[in-house]
Amino acid sequence: MAAVAERVAEAAARERETAERLRRGGSFSEFEADSERLAAVWAAKHVEWQRVRDLIAQAGWGAYEPERDAQGSMWAQERGERRSGALAARAAFEARRRAQVDELRAELWLAAAPSRLIRAVADRAGLMPAQFLAQLAERVVVSEDGTVSVPPFTPSR
Question: Is this model's pTM higher than 0.70 or not?
Answer without folding.
Answer: no
